[in-house]
Sequence to fold (490 residues):
Amino acid sequence: MPSFKKLRVNPFRRDLIKQLIAIGAGGLIHPAFVTATNSNKLKNSLVSNSTWKDDEHYEALRKALNWQINTPTRYPDVIVQAQSEAEVQAAVLFATKNDLQIVCRSSGHNSAGAVLRNGGMLLDISALADISVNAAQKTALVQPGAKMYNFYQTLAAQQLIFPVADCHSVAMGGYLLGGGFSPVGYNWADGPACYSVISAELILANGKKVVVSKEENAELYWTIRGIGPGFFGVITRYQLKLYEHPKVILQSSFVYSLENLSSVLSFLDEMNEDKDERVEISIALKEQQDTADTIVAILKINVNINDSSDPQTEARALLTSYAESKLSQLAISRKEYEEIQFTDLMYSPDRNYRHNAENIWTDDAAALIAIVEHYKNRPKNSSVLMTLFHGRQRGSHRKDACYSSMGKHFLSSHLFWKKPEEDDINNRWYAEFNKILQAYTTSHYVNQIDNGLHPDRVRASFSEENWQQLARLRKKYDPDNRFHTYLGLE
Fold:
């Protein structure tokens, strides 16, 4: 089982050396290490910090830029590590002049290693990581390479928050482009994190810099709020809306035997109609060593309060309806009204494991039950993290964002294993796992799909109307296909 270390202090200061080894310092390796450049290829160009396929350190860099240890066998012609917005523009113009397709990378957390393509340019913008906060206006200017944990710590110091991801080393760029799924915070913006994007600065396929917002270049503003890894440009800075940091987060946890899982989901469905928007519910299957059951279902209910004079009392009141229901009566064990920190909801990924990830949106929480028997027969020495976020979708989608995943509940899964020789058996098991879930699927979350194996799931992440609009805008703003589209659709 991969370890998920809770972060209590800033890991970027304390464990810098470890971070460099484990995640390539977010992908940025010092130019002195990687720029044994081919002088003939780069002669008379404006591109700096470039590494070509035949350079000595190319393979080490290629692997470092993909956070998964099971690095795909795809090889860009050149890797450019831009240090500034000017270098991003220079790289885009160089690619145009030399007919290179571009894929952009801010942290490399894409499922299936989508930042790696055959041929063309991998443009690494992880060095663009500035954060500037205007506490009075509750806004922030954030570059795409800024990491979640660093951003959260900066905001928390000023009693502010943003619906950040639960993984500390995910960068803001790709996270916001795909929508942004936060463990707590959907009630703040009535939807995904991209709804809190006020404006952005970006470089188009022709090398031109533009600013996008509701009032300026509205088509592109609509596009960047949910398009995911198929975006046809490079975002260099976001302006984001911030929120008051929760005064308290309380959590109640219940453990159930699998025979009661159906009843638990039925009760949650009944209670969902009246669920307060500040309540977040998740239920996961997990191996349990200290009970008679080998596998149990663990229900967690989080309540975050940021707008009350008595947050403890209000949070406890919201949890009481669950504590006094049949949900509590069916539990093998429970821990109630625990005060937690937001960082308790974040984890540090273990890069020593091979990894696959998928998801579905569904209107039927029984999708979790459908997968139980297959879950029991997972490959030896492998582990599965599978979580259903119950009642996650709220309201209708916004007209000023292309994000349009549909479904009442979100079911996320991650498969981990260690040995390369076990790739085939794990991939086959996971393919069957996702085949079972497909019958329950209403759509997908574009940031967490293997669109190399399942390109159909890219289109299924959007409404048909939004998908057609994205195609029209790609043709308008990137007529020469300078930027790679989604993996699997080229």
About this structure: The longest strand covers residues 295-305. The CA atoms of residues 283 and 299 lie 4 Å apart. The first helix runs from residue 11 to 14. Residues 1-39 have pLDDT under 50 and may be disordered.
